[in-house]
Fold:
Amino acid sequence: MTAILRGDLVARELDDATRIEVERLRADGIDPSLAVVLVGEDPASEIYVRRKRLAAEAVGIRSIEHRLGAATSQQSLLALIATLNADPGIHGILVQLPLPPQIASDEVLGAITPHKDVDGFHPVNVGRLSTGTGGLIPCTPLGCMLLLDRVIADFRGLKAVVIGKSNIVGKPVAMLLLERECTVTITHIHTRGLPEIARTADIIVAAAGSPGLVRGDWVKPGAVLIDVGINRIAREDGKTVIVGDVAANECDHAAVLTPVPRGVGPMTIACLLRNTVQAARLALA
Ligand SMILES: Nc1nc2c(c(=O)[nH]1)N[C@@H](CN(C=O)c1ccc(C(=O)N[C@@H](CCC(=O)O)C(=O)O)cc1)CN2
Structure:
C-alpha cells in the first residue's frame, strides 16, 4: 500500500509556524512585506499570484502586487526592481515566471538584491546552495525536502534520481539531496536508459513537466516518489484536469507518493512565506 503524502496538509502546518514567526517579527518592529511582480496575463500565473497574495495575508504578511502589461520593456521591469530593492519596507521580492519573451529572465532575477530574493533564484543564492553556505532556497525544492523529511529520517547513502534539470526545481533539489548525502543522479527526458536509472532509486523527484512519464515499471518497490509535475491535460469529455509526471495508478508498490494536485504545489507557496519571514529577519540583523 502506498502512503499518500499530502502537501496541502503539511503546508498548513508550515503556515501555522510562519504565522507565529510573523507575530514575533511584529513584536520586534518589523512588518514582513512581500512584493509580487506579475508581467502579462498568463492565466496560470494569475492564479498562482492570487494564491500567493491570499496565503501571505492569511499568515499576516503584507503583500503588494505590481502588475505590468505584457509589452513591458526589460528596462521598466528593472527600474521597478531597483525601486523595490531600495525600499526598506519591502523584505521579499518575487517576479512570477514565466516572463514575456522580450525580457531576459536571468537578467531580471539577477537584479534582485540577494537578501530579498525569496525565490532563491539569484546567482548568489544559487552559489550558496551549491556550496552549502546558507542563503534563500528556491521554494519548490525546499517544499520537496520538507515533504521528504516527513518520511525519511536518514538520507545518507540513499539513491536519489531527479528527473528534470530546470533551474527552478531539478538542479536545486539535486543540490539539497546531495547536501543530505544522498547519491544523486540528475536526469532529463533525453537521458538514455532513463527507466533503468529510475529503477535504482530510493527517491525519485519527477520534475520533467511530462504527464505520466514515470511508469510503474520505472519504480523500485518501496521507493519514495515526489511528483513535481503540474500538467494541464484535456480529458476525453473535454474537461481539463491537472496530472503529475508520475503514472500514480501504476505505482501501488511505491512506499510513498505525493499527489497532484495537493502535493508539492501548495508547499511551494508555504515555502515562499517561510522565505519571506527569513528575509525579513535578515533585515533585523
Ligand atoms: N517566481 C516563480 N515563478 C514560478 C514558480 C516559483 O516558484 N517562483 N513556480 C511555478 C508556479 N508556482 C508558483 O509560482 C506554483 C505552481 C503550482 C502551485 C499549486 O499549488 N498547484 C496546485 C494545482 C494547480 C492548480 O490548481 O492550478 C497543486 O499542486 O495542488 C503553486 C504554485 C512556476 N512559476
